[in-house]
Amino acid sequence: MEQFTGKIAIIGSGNIGTSLAKGLVKSGYAAAAQITLTRRNIAGLSAYADQGFAVSADNPAAVAAADIVVLCVLPQQLNRLLETLQPVIDPQRHLVISVASGVSCADIRNKLSDALQVVRAMPNTAIAIGQSMTCVATDQADEANVQLVSTMFETVGAVVKINEDLMTAATALCACGIAFFLRAIRAASQGGVEIGFHAEDALKMAVQTAKGAADLLLLMESHPEQEIDKVTSPKGCTIAGLNEMEHNGFSSSLIKGIKLSAVKAGELYKKE
Fold first, then answer.
1. Are 266 and 168 in contact (CB under 8 A)?
2. CA pair distance 210, 204, nearest whole angstrom
3. Could you tell me if 155 and 182 lie in one domain?
4. Which residues form the Pyrroline-5-carboxylate reductase catalytic N-terminal domain (predicted)?
5. Is the distance from CB of 263 to CB of 174 less than 8 angstroms?
């Protein structure tokens, strides 16, 4: 991977921001000294300072010294942040990457500069282990900048480029989706306890089974129904269990939950 030669400012360095920073360094894309991490209370970043990252509580100063600006704050906090950054933004130099849910590229340009290059990225919490599913989109940024953002987030997982009008949907399926799959694993482990396993064993069995199911699809490049057919025999126990779950709304409840999350995700910024 070709190393980036500029400076990166990650504004609001919580779990996503610090995980991205670690991924960029681990992959060799950037050195720690090229990355500034900001947070209101920089005491929480002391371990990163020890690793060679620059840390700061001064967002405008961090942005003024950077080429790439990654906005990792909540949608509700974004407008106040953008007001402080507007005086130091240089549209000719800065590329802005936003991970704020429900905030369009146009929303950000309206606060900073019409000429600014803005790309949105929606990772999920599996970024902490380099297994994020990140969706990337823009409305008018150059293809080279979209590819640059994709390369950055490929250091912490898989990336799919999508149309910007699908970014709220991506939030529901990928970011909220982590919680949905975790709840399904938790439910499976509780079922395991009910049929006789100790809780810790049931959880380990459910987790590894879920991981195996996901890897089957990824590595075999197959469809879920293909793999389901391999496990369901006539009058068998698997199809009996599946049909009981479907009769109780398993698939439809998951679909409805994803749809509702997409609606809520689209309202986060508007309700500020």
1. yes
2. 10
3. no
4. 7-102
5. no
Residue 12 and residue 99: Cα distance in Å, rounded? Answer: 11
Specify binding-site residues for NADPH: 59
Give a yes or no: residue 3 inside a domain: no
**In the structure, what pLDDT confidence band is assigned to residue 1 with cuts at 50, 70 and 90?**
confident
Q: Which residue has the tokens 């500020």?
A: 272
Domain count, the chain: 2
**Whether residue 254 sits in one domain with residue 193:** yes
Binding residues, as ranges, are: 59
Residue 2 lies in a domain: no
Task: Note the pLDDT tens digit of each residue in 58-100.
Answer: 999 999 999 999 999 988 899 999 999 999 999 999 999 999 9
Domain interval for residue 242: 177-267
Query: HSE on the CB side for 140, CA within 13 Å?
Result: 10
Q: How far apart are CA 100 and CA 37, in angstroms?
A: 17
